[in-house]
Amino acid sequence: MVRIIEVGPRDGLQNERETISLSARLDLIFALAEAGLAEQEFGSFVSPKAVPQMAGTDEVAAGLPTGLTGWALVPNVKGMERALASGCRNAALFTAASEDFVQANIRMSIAESLEVFAEAAGLFRSRVPEGRLRGIVSTAFECPFVGRVDPEAAVAVAHELLELGVDEVVLADTIGTAGPSEVKRLAAAASDIPKEKLAWHFHDTRGTAVANVWTCLELGYRSFDSAAGGLGGCPFAPGAGGNLATEDLVYLLEREGFRTGVDLELLARATLPVLDLLGREPESKVQRAVLAGRS
Amino acid sequence: MVRIIEVGPRDGLQNERETISLSARLDLIFALAEAGLAEQEFGSFVSPKAVPQMAGTDEVAAGLPTGLTGWALVPNVKGMERALASGCRNAALFTAASEDFVQANIRMSIAESLEVFAEAAGLFRSRVPEGRLRGIVSTAFECPFVGRVDPEAAVAVAHELLELGVDEVVLADTIGTAGPSEVKRLAAAASDIPKEKLAWHFHDTRGTAVANVWTCLELGYRSFDSAAGGLGGCPFAPGAGGNLATEDLVYLLEREGFRTGVDLELLARATLPVLDLLGREPESKVQRAVLAGRS
Questions:
Q1: B247, B15 contact by CB (below 8 A)
Q2: Residue B95's beta-bridge partner residues?
Q3: How many structural domains does chain B have?
Q4: What is the ipTM of this complex?
Q5: DSSP state, A227?
Q6: Are strands B39-44 and B69-74 parallel, antiparallel or unpaired?
Q7: How far is A239 from chain B (nearest CA, A)?
Q8: Rounded Cα distance, B247 and B249, in Å
Q9: Contact B206 A241 (CB under 8 A)
Q10: Ranges of chain A with pLDDT below 70
Q11: Residue B184's closest chain A neighbor by CA?
């Protein structure tokens, strides 16, 4: 069994120019849950001034489908307070492997971001001891400002997050440039971290995401983030592709004999209303093949 | 060094509803050559009644860029006569691993197609002894009519082609369904064929082509077909994606340290006029990332 964490409702929508209504966000989440995506990153408790697309995540949290494992992205202690007040039992905190990226993104050093992280994690644990925490390491492969990232630097941050008590670390190819050899090198550097404590988050900006997932599968990793419809354009390359498409991930997994519990027909249709609102075509090859096969 | 055989001007255009003019076809070939694609399947000597998009391939052959290694697809003895009369020094003959596919495609059994193949190959050898022949095994993984193909069946056809004296065999995932494990199984079944005598032809209909190429690279294979811009929609799934995009292949290769001699900037622009004529958006993730990076 492979675990898919659907991030379309958060990572997929947060960079869009169009702000999607709360009801459309919830409709998307329900359609994805209906297709079998039982774990979803449903929103972010960032400042609505900074990321207007994620305003009202409190209300989304209150309206989630029964039985869904919902993850909320939390940037800081204030965000954690909001997440907890909304009843969130699973939170994702983030930092990055590149100093320049953290500076540009949240105006802190990595060390400062880890202090914030520790405080937010402590608050979370004190209030939801049975809850789960993810720690996301952005730019684990490459940074848009300084280029390739040393795998040891990414793994050092992963270790700090694990010491702060996160249940799993997410290694993210934020700008979607990595190839399979880089996945192998990072996995080798992280070989002392138990495999069930690592998840992988690939962007498919340059068509390598499925090959990277396959490399992870061969190494024994079983947790992947993805976004239905390939939502989530990269802010550093407007017009370019976004996250690894969940449809493409599911196809690979099922073809390779891993069960996902996802219905590809339902999944292929789940993002159509949002894509329509955004004025976008499906990014996912599998989604398009499935939709074409039905026509 | 990895060898890329650009098939966009043939496999990429042959199924299009719009017929592209001879000058637009030649412009595409020249732009691709300019980008560094020194080997191209430039057309097909099929009946212009059956495939009007490939009418006039004789004239294309006469106008090819100096220095290009041009491959012509040849379906039968009559096509070989035309190819030879046009001065072709490299010809690709095809059959398939699935009886049903050969029947549907050229109304013969595999054995009958091999007899035609032998006659056409003999004619080619007698007239161009120093020329090169490829033998294409379509549906080497799966057939749209009967499903999965036994790797041993595909390899048996490959052996017959090699006995007929082809210089290389192309194993084709015609409908773009295969995953990396199937590549491994087919490669294992073909392990007694020297690696330099096998090329791989993937369609990216379901997003697995790059992962399949990577699997081949790890196994030591170094020859791949691809189509710039991801041209080449599948006739069995209208609207679905086409061939492995050359841009995506080049990105993977260069990122993994293989030199290709291809200029991605020039390549990303090479198909724009044809895409415009066809009223299509670029299929290639890398092409879109490159074009987005320039805007």
A1: no
A2: B137
A3: 1
A4: 0.95
A5: B
A6: parallel
A7: 5
A8: 5
A9: no
A10: 233-240, 294-295
A11: A256
